[in-house]
Amino acid sequence: MKTNYHTHCTYCDGKEPIEHFVNKALELGYDQLGFSSHAPVPFENDFGIREEQIPEYTKEIDGFKAQCPSLQLFYGLECDFIPDMTKPFSFFKNQFGLDYIIGGVHLVRPENSDDIWFIDGSKREIYDNGLRDFFGGNVKKAVTRFWEQSFEMIETEQFDIIAHFDKIKMHNQKRYFTEEEDWYKLLVDHCIELIRRKQLIVEINTRGIYKGRCPDYYPSDYALAQIAKHRIPMVVSTDAHKSEELAEGRDAAIEHLKSMGIKYLMYRKNDQWEEYAIV
Ligand SMILES: [Zn+2]
Ligand SMILES: [Zn+2]
Hints:
Blueprint: E1 3-4, H1 18-27, E2 32-38, H2 54-65, E3 72-80, H3 89-96, E4 100-104, E5 107-108, E6 117-118, H4 124-135, H5 139-156, E7 161-162, H6 182-198, E8 201-205, H7 207-210, H8 221-229, E9 234-237, H9 250-259, E10 264-269, E11 272-277
Parallel strand pairs: 1-2, 2-3, 3-4, 4-7, 7-8, 8-9
Antiparallel strand pairs: 5-6, 10-11
Bound molecules: zinc ion (2 copies).
């Protein structure tokens, strides 16, 4: 199976229209392609789809279905979870008849505050400034807040795939903390346990590597080893924002998963997720 369910087109911050990704997927012989625009958030932004555009987005994808019978198309959203701020993920799923939801944390809300710390994007200084301004430079507090927000998302929202599991490491670049520290590992352990209980799918996300922003996949090997041990279901995501990124790093990621003892990936079958063997 050749699949990608994490794809951003021009309805959000992706750089190309839906058609380009469809053509690329056909060219690459893909079996399934899913779009996952960033969901609306309740403040002005230039990265998310606007709620009133969602019907047009799903209709446009539906329009391509008849044209390419060899490629199954799906639509979902990549929903941000910000405590007491974002709409329930199930609202979008039900309101717009989406196939699936990817849940992720890109925006960290400090406790008892309306500030928002943006941990993603290309600018490391935004990460550094937020760490200083919203958390007084206390990296343990800031990183813990990211994980707590992930825990709350898993416990309270309905979704299918958890996006870039440990995105918080991206702009760290081993400057403020290392992933080997006990306090950090405990947070990862707890997140894996919640994912296991909730039966979520974890993506191995290749974007950090091919964008040169992070030397490792999301998630790092420490988490992947536990994912293998507990047989937590996985998909490979390129998180493509351009059509040329659609398969970027995919083959290497599958080889990496195999080397970590992971033997299965998930795909869409009759509106459900089913596993298939990669070895
Ligand atoms: Zn994301
Ligand atoms: Zn994404």
